Amino acid sequence: MTVASVAPNAKVSTGDILMGHNDWNIDTAHTGIHFSVRHMVVSKVRGRFEKYSGTFRLDDGDITRSFVDVTIDASSIDTGVADRDTHLRSPDFFDVEKFPELRFRSKRIERVDDTRHRVIGDLTIRDVTREVSLDVEYGGHGKDPWGNERVGFVAKTSIDRKDFGLTWNQMLETGGILVGDRVDIDLDVQGVRGAAHSAA
Predict the structure, then answer these.
(1) Which domains does the chain carry?
(2) Rounded to whole angstroms, how far apart are CA atoms 181 and 7?
(3) Nearest CA among 54, 52, 49, 50 for reference residue 70
(4) What SUPFAM superfamilies does the record point to (predicted)?
(5) What is the pLDDT at residue 195?
(6) Alpha helices in the chain (DSSP H)
């Protein structure tokens, strides 16, 4: 997710972030947490989480010393089908009554190049915590018309849902399984700091 004030196709690096230790809040109005998983082997089901909050601290002197902390409301899962979402909230999957939140906290950050980093951290789903690695690309930073400073990133990772206790499945008469084990996760993240003023 690039920030509006960054020229199209401009080469930007994390070194362009404003100097010092910068604390940012995730702007949920301009951020997306999306996922996809195989259904009946032949296609993918896509979904998202609608409610979450998070902060990150950027150290542009050494971006690898930055930190990310995100909490997701498990009950806010949305795949576009109400019955399926109800099943996903049930004990067969997220069991949101017992485990209302998913959480990611970074442990370390590794530099790949000027615009890409690998963020390694602990992801907690239900009562299971596993280390995961996100491939993160920096999009740029700038100011919106209301004077808020903004910064953008995109990130990708994949997990095996069984590693987190999400083991429910059904065998198909034609062979294979109903729900795939691999979950692909795509994040578009925009952070904001500055005046508390809503922006379109």
Answers:
(1) 19-193 (2.40.128.110)
(2) 40
(3) 54
(4) YceI-like
(5) 41
(6) 82-89
